[in-house]
Structure to design on (336 residues):
């Protein structure tokens, strides 16, 4: 079965979006016709994954331009979409790129077409970057062996075959896909709901574990490497990714398991010097105290809910980009 297509254009205007909050129970596609609807989808994680958020935001600006083409409306849309998720650098990278393209358009009647072409280019480039990440990373994986990941950094998170899962799919095409250990990734279960669903759909063998089983699973000694994505990579090689990445890196170091970060160059932020400077999104406590409306904690209890953690560069074996495999300290060379 082919990989899912989480986003697409609607004709003549709008976005068709897979609502990832409903997976794996229901595969529902939304039709979004306003910038406000796109912003809500990003904020509510109906669309998620750093590269895909950037693509969705770029497409959202096309909707704004289609609504009348006024440059002021596009500027308002940039502010609205930019405020949805603070950690993923691809969101702001894509919006800035679209803003620069809009600034080159002299005739407002040509704005929507120009922005549509730019958004499509961002999508096409991300698809190609994912394929290159897959090729660069495939040689690091134990073909037919076992790997571990966290959250979802596959086709559901990008405009192509994914980042962390791209080498898995590259090897799948060669008939040598590894077995993938999938931690559930609390509190929103992107591992169990999304990665397990995506891998199973693609025909890749996977085993689900709870997050607190990670160290015990690595201790068995049969996991060849860890593969994770990134929402922002600082200039010194520190990486922000979904909460749970940092403990996976610690466990990998303790058990001698290589730890690889896989991300497109658009995720590298040279303006952020290190992990301490990365803004970490904190989400509603209700995501921790219950699940889909069913409370699992005492009423009124407080909860801390950071959506991301930061993995220090010294715990990372290598960063795999579309431009090759780099040591964390050399990551900015990918965008020089």
């Amino acid at each position: 079965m082919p990989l899912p297509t989480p986003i697409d254009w609607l004709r003549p205007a709008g976005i068709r979006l897979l609502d990832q909050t409903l997976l794996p129970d229901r595969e529902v596609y939304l039709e979004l016709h306003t910038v406000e609807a796109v912003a809500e989808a990003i904020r509510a994680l109906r669309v998620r994954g750093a590269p895909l958020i950037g693509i969705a935001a770029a497409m959202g600006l096309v909707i704004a331009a289609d609504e009348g083409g006024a440059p002021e409306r596009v500027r308002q849309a940039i502010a609205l979409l930019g405020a949805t998720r603070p950690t993923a650098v691809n969101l702001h990278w894509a919006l800035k790129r679209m803003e620069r393209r809009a600034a080159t358009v002299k005739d407002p009647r040509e704005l929507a077409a120009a922005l549509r072409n730019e958004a499509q280019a961002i999508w096409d480039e991300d698809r190609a970057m994912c394929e290159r990440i897959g090729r660069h990373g495939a040689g690091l994986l134990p073909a037919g062996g076992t790997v571990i990941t966290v959250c979802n950094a596959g086709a559901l998170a990008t405009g192509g075959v994914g980042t962390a899962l791209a080498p898995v799919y590259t090897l799948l095409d060669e008939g040598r896909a590894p077995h993938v250990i999938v931690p559930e990734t609390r509190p929103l279960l992107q591992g169990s709901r999304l990665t397990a669903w995506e891998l199973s759909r693609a025909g890749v063998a996977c085993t689900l574990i709870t997050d607190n089983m990670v160290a015990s699973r690595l201790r068995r000694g049969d996991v060849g490497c860890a593969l994770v994505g990134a929402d922002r990579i600082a200039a010194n090689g520190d990486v922000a990714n979904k909460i749970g990445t940092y403990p996976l890196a610690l466990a990998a170091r303790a058990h001698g398991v290589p730890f690889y970060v896989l991300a497109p160059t658009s995720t590298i932020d040279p303006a952020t010097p290190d992990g301490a400077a990365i803004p970490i999104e904190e989400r509603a406590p209700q995501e921790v105290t219950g699940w889909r409306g069913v409370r699992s904690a005492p009423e009124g209890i407080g909860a801390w809910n950071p959506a991301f953690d930061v993995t220090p560069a010294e715990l990372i074996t290598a960063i795999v980009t579309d431009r090759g495999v780099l040591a964390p300290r050399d990551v900015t060379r990918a965008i020089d």
